[in-house]
Amino acid sequence: MHRKKEAYFECSGCGREYEISGSIWRCRCGCHLNLVFDAEINRERLEGREKTLWRYFEALPLEETSSIISFSEGFTPLLKAELFNQNVLVKMEYLFPTGSFKDRGSTVMISKLKELGVGEIVEDSSGNAGASVSAYSARAKIKCHIFVPERAPETKLSQIEFYGAEIHRIKGSREEVAERARNFAESRYYASHSWNPFFLHGTKTFAYEISEQLNWRTPDAIILPVGNGTLLLGAYLGFRELRDMGLIEEIPRLIGVQSASCAPLFRAFRENSEKLPEIEVRETIADGISVSKPVRWKEILAAIRETDGELIAVEESEIIEALRELGRKGFYVEPTSAVSLAALRRIDESGEFLIPLTGSGLKLGERMRRFL
Ligand SMILES: [Zn+2]
User: Fold this and answer.
1) Over the stretch 251-284, which tens digit does the pLDDT of each residue have?
2) How many A from CA of 10 to the centre of ligand 1?
3) How far, in Å, from the CA of 295 to the mean position of ligand 1?
4) In contact, 352 and 89? CB cutoff 8 Å
5) Hey, CA dihedral for 257, 303, 21, 61, is it positive or negative?
6) Which of 15, 19, 183, 278 falls between 20 and 30 A from 347, CA-CA?
7) What is the pLDDT of residue 5?
8) Residue 301 Cα, ligand 1 centroid: separation in angstroms?
9) Is the pLDDT at 152 greater than 90, yes or no?
10) Are strands 310-314 and 78-83 parallel, antiparallel or unpaired?
11) Do 156 and 263 reside in the same domain of the chain?
12) How far is ligand 1, taken at its centre, from the CA of residue 311, in Å?
């Protein structure tokens, strides 16, 4: 299949436009880039296609199907479950090839980078995104460097190493790790899950799948863990595109959840602040969303406001209770995934809620025992 698609980068800060290429990952002004691109979905054409996220090829920013780097991922199960005595829709995002939803972003980003001829990439991650990008780089034969915080869980690091990526352990905060990665990427390509716009065009398939699985209807609200916001922003982008195509009527309310130990977005939302507040980061078991300076923070808050959503911060004890409840109902996930259920318990409204379970409990190995 071949289709020429009109697409370009647009700076999120100054609005400058750039042609798409494999040598640029941010604007000259320093801000991150967004991808402007007309997505298409033809419902009739979906019939008979393989149940992977690549069934939405016309809505993804690739020129040729031959560029696709895939493990036949996506179309994760969507089921009903009773959690804390409430009926909830659960999307099992931990059933991806590398054990987290990040594969949505990686399959699209790495496919596109391969198409653009990029041969070496740099990423920084506390675990899941690093593992995911490494696996897809291995399949694409792209040289991959992953910068990780020195204290990242060993089980996640060994997964990255198994995929053959080069690990760079960095002392200091999560932001210092990111800065070191960006410096290292000056002469390479920074394939960051938080900066790269192709990544979000992968995570948007989360919204497509939900809509299709519910027969082009949407739930009232989706409750998502938010650190860098890659899933929330992808969901927003996907639902907005579907609404603009006339395939769904309404975008669900997007409710973001942070750990109270690292909740800059929660504070910015509540205080309606113009700047991202400086916060003191405490240790949290929801390490996947422990991000004190999310690059796309303004977009995250705008998406939440535009959908009449909400931001909730949950305590460690609430996360552990939710994690146990999920386990008792047969869902073995990592603590970061449990924040959505912890937040749902706080919501005193009726309606149809959906929670994604974003990462597998198997990733933490024995460390899960301490939450029993
Ligand atoms: Zn700019």
Assistant:
1) 999 999 999 999 999 999 999 998 999 999 899 9
2) 8
3) 14
4) yes
5) positive
6) 278
7) 58
8) 20
9) no
10) unpaired
11) no
12) 28
